[in-house]
TrEMBL record, chain A:
One of its GO terms (cellular component) is plasma membrane. Coiled coil: none annotated. It comes from Ruminiclostridium sufflavum DSM 19573. This is Simple sugar transport system permease protein. The chain crosses the membrane at residues 12-33, 53-75, 82-102, 108-132, 190-208, 238-258, 279-299. PANTHER family: ABC TRANSPORTER, PERMEASE PROTEIN, GUANOSINE ABC TRANSPORTER PERMEASE PROTEIN NUPP.
From TrEMBL, chain B:
This is Basic membrane protein A. It comes from the Bacteria. Keywords: Cell membrane, Lipoprotein, Membrane, Signal. Residues 1-19 form the signal peptide. InterPro entries: BMP_lipoprotein, PnrA-like.
Amino acid sequence: MKKNDTILKNIFNVVFPVACAFVLGGILIAAIGENPFLTYWVMIQKSLFSVDGLLKTLHFASPLILTGLAIAITFKANIFNMGVEGAAVLGGFFACVVGFTVKGLPTVLHIAVCLLTGIVVGMLFSLIPALLKAYFNVNEMVVTLMMNYVVVEIVKFLSQGVFKDPSSGYVSTYPILDSAMFKKIFNSDLTVFFFIALLVFAVMYVVFKKSKLGYEIKAIGKNPEFSEATGMRVKNKIIIIMLISGAIGGLAGSGFLMSEKYRFTMDFSGSPGLGWDGMLIALLGSHNPVGILIAAIFYAALKTGSEYIGVFTNVPKDIVGVIQGLLILLLSVKFLNERFRFSNKIRFLFKKSSKTDFNK
Amino acid sequence: MKKKSLSLLLALVMLVSMAFTGCTTNNNGANSTNTGTSTDTTKGKDDLGIALITSAAGANDKGYNQSAIEGLKKVKDEFGINYKVVEATDVPGSLTQLASAGYKLIFSLEYNFDALINGVGGSKSIAEQYPDTTFVVFNDNPNVKEDGSVKHKNVVSVLFDVHEASFLAGALSTLVNENASALFNSADYAFTTGAAGRKVGFLGGSKSNGITVFGYGFAEGINYVAKELGVKYTFYSDYNAGFSDSAAGATKANTYYTDGANIVYAVAGAVGDGVDAKAKEVKKLSIEVDANKDSNQPGYVLTSVLKNTEVPVYEISKNYKENTLDQINGKVLSYNLASGATGITDLSVIESKIAASGKAKWDEIKAKLDTIADKIASGEIKVTNAQAGEAFDKAKLENLNMPND
């Protein structure tokens, strides 16, 4: 019974902010003189209840599932890895480089090599903060956050320099070869990349719920000193967790490049980037794999829906940006509430002022 | 410790998200006015009209996109053709949706051609999927095969000869710089004089052909006049200014101004606003780009190098109205100085600052510019067009020193 209660509470904790964000967004839409119900209907109907739209939503959900998982695994262990964005960008960039420099490979092999490059680059990228954290106790949040900027400058330098496509009028690398592109299934947007993301999801589900590592992650997240005392080698575990996170982040970036962007440009990751979106998704899914899967699809539906809004209604698509912002704000309130028990304090204040019976 | 880092994390997440939503909401607010005006136009399903996809800068960028939309407004007023403006992040997706919704003429202002022209991920190109729709792309001509023949009959490429316009701006800069003391009241400006002032700055948003085309043309223009006058100039350039950080642009421009440069030319979107403001502060001059922004800081913006998307949008829409799109389909439309789509402004704003004693000299300069424009048109002066892939050789510019090209 008690378990059921907490699940219900958790669901409420997520659904309530989402609903609030939509209501507030709806008020805004009404304020600019458009019909909010119609707008939301277009958004939902086009992004979830039409075959093309649904496949497109799933296509855009693929990298978000991965970045969400990459964030969740570290956050669950109380390691605040902000570097998933950097891993995704770097992974995408080097997958692209391999995608246009290596010639003559059969499609399957070429795709595998590119993805592997992305994964390895992501892992190498995450190794730096992992080692600093494990052996020198350097704050990983600062290091990973700052390394994202380093990555942006590096890929900018490389795509304006050696890998620049001279025929292009803007900053861009060469497009990847046909053999490195994920093929679109039945001329929809969906590619095999989505199924790779699902596979990673399944593996991570097992890791989180059934494996020793999953238990250790939870234990380290709750109390690292105690975990060390019980015989876990926390340093090693931190490195492993960071490497997994980097690998998934790199995979997200390389897959996104090979299934959607096909060439590296400075706006590759979008704004906010894949990694930052992943953070919101991990938060929305309460760091739970199933939650993340649902949240990623929901979030991708918002994204594709926003494009349809721009085409089929007069509401600017930026309204979805507003809803996303509200969502983060409201989710953070819930987060705060859990940690600092604001609502209890407020209730306590009220009780005091209304002089109710304390000895009940 | 745990609580502390958690609250820190939260603050960070909020900050990041707020920063991003901050800019999107801003866009949104500005955009609503725009879509507001086209509200009634998009309702009629029977006649969809013309669609336009803006570039990342958005519909209210005071330049490139906004001028194109002005063109559509003019088309609506004159011919009664409806239009739809879409700000897209997923350009191929929006192209497909607009084409399948039934739009027969679609302008795409963003650099994003792979899916449209070549097809990606094993699918047919969008141009091939919708053969009845005419797609218009700007600033590049991706619609050619390797042997030079046209790939798709329903794609039109629009190019602007901005290198020629930049050449004029360069020539004007040198002429004004050399005669500054005669032209302006000394109280209004604080120009660096003599050899120390023979410097010009250039800020570009990115090191790409779409931007260097402006910088190279500008440099050649300066060199042309400097050679005639027998003086030597220094050309400072920075191609990493980005397109949004106007404060950083102001700082960079200031280093040029304090080093002696009297004129700084910014081809970097909103970065130019910062340069204009700095020019006013240090009482020197700046040069703007895309739309006529001479009134940004009246008297301190020397001129604007125009890339007026309104002209091609209007003309192509006229073809659409008259059902003569097949005349231009598959073609490259190049807009030169004579077309009015590119060039420099009429200089009327800066002219109001010219001292009475300098009027004669000013007229002389304007006449000189006209001659140069004629020489460009006749082919006597050849300006490097980086956008068309022409190589730029700075060694040929004898009177120009480019320390950091």
